[in-house]
């Protein structure tokens, strides 16, 4: 699928191409404007929209918050906005980007999933990168409030920019669905801040938090982590050429009787930056990417254990008082 929001010619010529060339991230040349728009949107939400809505919805509570708590409050609002947006776009990509689905689970398909590109995946990565830049700025400027853990997380998330090589863009769609659980995590923080630790709203949010975290991070995340690691390993062993992959995409589109100008253009786009990729993935690159994938997977298990323990404690307390 082509990017539905291509960059203006003047912006691409004067900003996107020079920046992408300097950073050696070819696919970024097509999506710099989207990252910039996302970043500005999150900044406006933090400094204007969130304070306005907070004063309106919580006129007694919000004005009495400390500056540090207000900062945390606004970052949670932005996190929820980002999570809802990015999860929606990720689902849209997986449902409507036929080229994404054509990166099938077969031997050569591993190379497509590691080095393939579609405009829709680029849009998804750009929106995510806009938030990660915001996250990094907040964690750096307000280090005393958020601490080393948040800064480390922000720096790690910023590594998403290397997807514009392109590299592992295929997995951005399934992995960004981790964000589905974040609004419920943020709601838990808000409810706790407002002193609401019981009642229907608290119970429903807790149930949705538990369910979304288990399904999207533990089950879905583990499943796709296994496939991503398998593809990384395969790409270190297989020798390939961008032109051969491009021809294969042409033939696949034609054999599926999908040939028309627009669809053929989309198939060609899948290998648009294939010439920038090495003939095989260096082992050190695969290890560098595999390590955080495994760490994130283990962190998801650890966080889910904490959520489960908290939920069980609430259940026990409820049984004691009933």
UniProtKB/TrEMBL annotation:
Lineage, please?
Eukaryota, Fungi, Dikarya, Ascomycota, Pezizomycotina
Protein name (Swiss-Prot/TrEMBL): TLC domain-containing protein
Biological-process GO terms, alphabetical: lipid homeostasis
Alphabetical list of InterPro entries matching this protein? TLC-dom (IPR006634), TLCD (IPR050846)
Its annotated compartments are:
Membrane
Residue stretches making up the TLC domain: 68-316
Record-annotated membrane-spanning stretches: 77-95, 115-133, 202-223, 284-304
A Pfam family (short name) is TRAM_LAG1_CLN8
Membrane topology per the entry is:
Multi-pass membrane protein
GO CC term (a single one): membrane
User: What keywords does the record list, in alphabetical order?
Assistant: Membrane, Transmembrane, Transmembrane helix
